[in-house]
Amino acid sequence: MATLEILNVTKRFGRKVIAVDDISLEVHDQEFLVLLGPSGCGKTTTMRMVAGLEEVTEGTILIDGVDVTDLPPRKRNISMVFQNYAIWPHMTVFENIAYALRLKHMAKSEIDRIVREVAGMTNIGEYLERLPAQLSGGQQQRVAVARAIAVSPKVFLMDEPLSNLDAKLRVSMRTELKAIHASAKATTVFVTHDQSEAMSIADRIVIMRDGKIIQTGTPEEVYEKSANLFVADFIGTPPTNFFDVTLQKSNGTLHLVNPHFDLSLDAANTARLNGYNKEQLVLGVRPENIVLTSEKDSIMGMTALVVEPQGSHQVIAFKMDEKMVKVVAPSQPKPDMGSTIHLNFSQGTLRFFDPETTFAIGD
Ligand SMILES: Nc1ncnc2c1ncn2[C@@H]1O[C@H](COP(=O)(O)OP(=O)(O)OP(=O)(O)O)[C@@H](O)[C@H]1O
Ligand SMILES: [Mg+2]
Asked: Residue 64, SS3?
């Protein structure tokens, strides 16, 4: 078990490409940290530098306080599971897991004990004598995980380990990975570009874009306190709804106004915007924070364009100035498509963004 520190690390490929741009982050002992970001943002490059498979252009990597920046991969005590989790096809599951232990010249009885322990953790105990070809994709994936944790790494790296699995298996495997982590307790860095996977599995999420870290926080923090427009849009499905509004003051009350609504802010939200002296603002509202209400309590009436029942809730879409706005509402009452719905915003959860800098305001 260990900590991992990445200090001001930059990776350049040639002169033009800056794949990772001066990032710093600390992974705590036994933490499950998720690197999340769109394709090409530098996630794999970061992992490969931690593993020692890619040279660091600038910066330092520490494992348990020891500088490993220039150490070869085998001296770093790291295990990896990557997207194509290549387990050896000619070896049984047992041999796949035992292989790295044999290289350490462990006693046979000790190897046997460890293989059975990690196979139990990953739920593949009954397949130890099978060849990989006789297993399903999800089972093979668990062999890869078992093999990686068998060597008791200080740091466990997983780069999109679930992306070869079908959607349903992906969701159940991520729950299993979380359970495996709870018992193996290895300090883990997990890479994904799937925000819902990140939200469900992470202790903390690091959101990257264009080689930089945009925000680090718990799933709740990045969802409720998204640091800028990019994060607010990237995290959550359906994504945050954004409205361009003008600030207006009348009788000491602050109003957010656009051609469709005039929202009079409560005292707490007014106070949040005290220091903001521009006229334009981007209002961010999560789909579950737009509420269906009576006409009298509403700030706007819109036409329900699409109504999608989801069982536990419904998603209602309407159009405002060519932009689709989505509402997540309790499954009842269900409006008819094409009917007028009356809406208001839940004021406890409004997000404000500066349209010029894109940063959140008033946190
Ligand atoms: N060996 C290389 N030579 C040149 N450029 C590279 C090399 N490896 C990666 N890059 C570039 O560095 C950037 C980051 O790549 P990286 O593979 O780290 O992205 P990623 O976040 O893992 O993306 P994905 O989600 O698609 O796997 C990309 O622009 C990529 O084209
Ligand atoms: Mg990648």
From this structure: coil
pTM score: 0.90
Q: Which of 27, 119, 44 is nearest to 80 (CA)?
A: 44
Q: Which residues line ligand 1 (CB under 6 A)?
A: 13, 17, 19, 37, 39-45, 193
Answer for the pair 285, 243: CB distance below 8 angstroms, yes or no. Answer: yes
One-letter identity of residue 226: S
Q: Looking at ligand 1, which residue's alpha carbon is closest to its atom 30?
A: 40
Number of CB atoms found within 10 A of residue 26's CB:
14
Ligand 1 atom nearest residue 208's Cα: 21
Question: Given this model, what pLDDT does residue 252 score?
Answer: 79
The answer to whether 275 and 266 have CB atoms below 8 angstroms apart is no
Phi, psi of 213 (to 5 degrees): -85, 125
Outline where DSSP puts E strands in 259-320: 261-264, 280-285, 290-292, 300-303, 306-309, 313-320
Which residue among 200, 234, 268 closes a domain? 234
Of 209, 234, 259, the one marking the end of a domain is 234
Distance (Å, whole) CA 158 – CA 82: 6
Q: Work out the end-to-end distance of the chain between its first and last CA atoms, rounded to an integer number of angstroms.
A: 35
Q: Which residues contact 132 (CB under 8 A, 6 or more apart)?
A: 87, 88, 89, 91, 93, 96, 140, 143
Scanning the structure block, which residue is given the tokens 């269906």?
292
Per-residue pLDDT tens for 236-271?
999 999 999 999 998 778 999 999 999 999 999 999
Q: How many CB atoms lie within 10 A of CB 194?
A: 16
- Per the structure, the count of domains in the chain is 2
Pair 108, 224 in one domain: yes
Residue 129 maps to which CATH number?
3.40.50.300
Ligand 1 centroid – CA 301 distance (Å): 46
Under a CB-based contact definition with an 8 Å cutoff, are residues 120 and 53 in contact? Answer: no
Please tell me the residue having the least CA distance from ligand 1 atom 1.
13
The domain in which residue 16 lies consists of 4-234
Backbone φ and ψ of 306, nearest 5°: -135, 140
Give the tens place of pLDDT for each residue, 35-71.
Answer: 999 999 999 999 999 999 999 999 999 999 999 999 9
